[in-house]
Structure formats: structure tokens, C-alpha cells
Design a protein that fits this description.
By secondary structure, this protein is mostly beta strands. The chain is 14% helix and 40% strand. A hairpin with a 3-residue loop joins strand 4 and strand 5.
Amino acid sequence: MRLNPNLLKTIVFIGHRGKEGEPVLHGTGFQFARTWERDGVMGYYRYIVTAKHNIAEAVDKGHDEVFVRYESRTQGLQLRYFPTSQWLNHDDGFIDVSVLLLDDAVDEVGGAVFTSDDFLTTSEVARYDVGVGNEVATIGLFLSHYGEERNEPVVRFGNISCMPRERVRSRKKFGAVDGYIIEARSFGGLSGSPVFVDVEHEPEMHEYSRIRDRDPTIRTIPARRRNHILGLIHGHWDMQEVAPPGIKLDPATRLDGAINMGMSIVIPAQHILDTINSDPVTTRQNRLIEARVQAERDRPADQGPA
């Protein structure tokens, strides 16, 4: 499975302050953008998407801010802190997705972005026959090598092991969640990471004519493969959590108190889109759009658009 190298440029890292105020990385996020138009004014907003529990766990530790580690267009690697209250969630508390709307940092935060077309909806999963065995790739934070002068996300490869037909028991505070199970040799730091699957697009037929009044020529664009977002990483299981009743694993055989099974839960991409389109997110977005439109109305004509 080959990945478009631009996908790595969508990745940001999520973290909080340590006991001495030092930055501590603990998760992954990625960038999403959409355009808007209202009353003749056009613009676009950029979002950071991550797992909701990345923010909730920072709050549980007493933090009221989390930072996003990103590469600025003009200033290189940056940490920017955001109040945890600015991260917006779906009304359904069992959906492990959180979204940050970057209203004033559109030009500052560099890197590539995803659009709605990059996400596999529920209907597209069926359309492209995505199922058990499909190869997947996860891009995210590797705590042993995250980059000193730039973000250095790593890619882990695996396969879909189980489709989301029944809710999956989670070790987080979400109980049972709707999600895929993938075998991808998971590890800490990947929570919130996008998971990709390759799908083959059907040939496309287009009509065009080079000479006026001539019958159009039919041009066929051949079938092609494209990386789509299957979902985001929710978490993994440790061996201790699945030990048979009455059996206690020997701590001497475990790494840092747990052995990672390598099996991860992936929140479906449809839930990411549902969160982006949910009332809390769209309400905040509409307020910002109205403010932008009003600012354009109030701007003197000779100053031109912002």
C-alpha cells in the first residue's frame, strides 16, 4: 500500500503541560478544511480533529489547556495552546471525536488539509466493498521519535480485522463504541490518528469537443486507487484486559505494566463528518461567519476585501 506523501503534512500532535510546565505529547490530530459563502463573502475554515478522550484525559489531569504542535507557514515548528472548552464534541457522548475550529489561525497553521471528499461515508464503505482484510495505514505520533525541528509522524500498516456490526468494548470511558477493529501493531500516541484505506475508483466518462458544432468525444479516465480516511484511532487493548478470569499476568513479562495486543478500535469516518456537522460545531462556525460577513459590510469600500 502506497500513501500520498502529502497525507503526512495534515498531521499535528496534541499535548499538555507537564509537572514542571514542560510540553508533554500524548496524542495525534489532523487538519480538515471546508469553504463557505454567504451574502457574496467567501472564505474557508480549518479544523483540527482528534479523539475526544485526548482532551478529556488532559482535563482529568487538571489541565484547562491543551496544545497543538504544528508547523507554521512562516515561523517553523510551533506550540499553540487552546482552552479545552474550545474543543467541540458531538451531542452523542459515546462518539470519541473532538473538533477545534481555527477561526484566527487559518493562514498561520501550515500543512495540507483534508476535505469531505476524503472521508469514507457509510454508503461508500459498501460501494467500494471495503471489508475484512483490506490493508490500512495509520499516521501519527511515535513517542520515541517525534521530531525536534519538525513534526515527524510515522506510519503503521495493518488490516481490517472486524467490521462495525456490533459495538466494541472499549477500555476508555465510553463503554461500548461503534467502530472497526484493525490489526495494526498499535502503540501509545496514536489516539486521534487518521486511518486510511485504499479504494479503487471506477472509470469516469467525460464528454468534450475540441471543435465547435462537432459531436462530443467520449474520454475515459481509467480506474485509479486513492487513499481515503476510514476513521480515527480510538485506542488499543492490553493483554491484561483480556486475561482469562482468575489469571493474573506476571508483571515481569509485561512492558511498562501492559503488553499491547496490537489490535485497535477505529471510530468510523462517518462519525467524524457527523461531528463536524453537529450543532455545537456548526453553531460556532455560523457565529464566526456572521462576524466575518458583518466585518466586510462595515469595511469602507476603498479598502477592499480583507
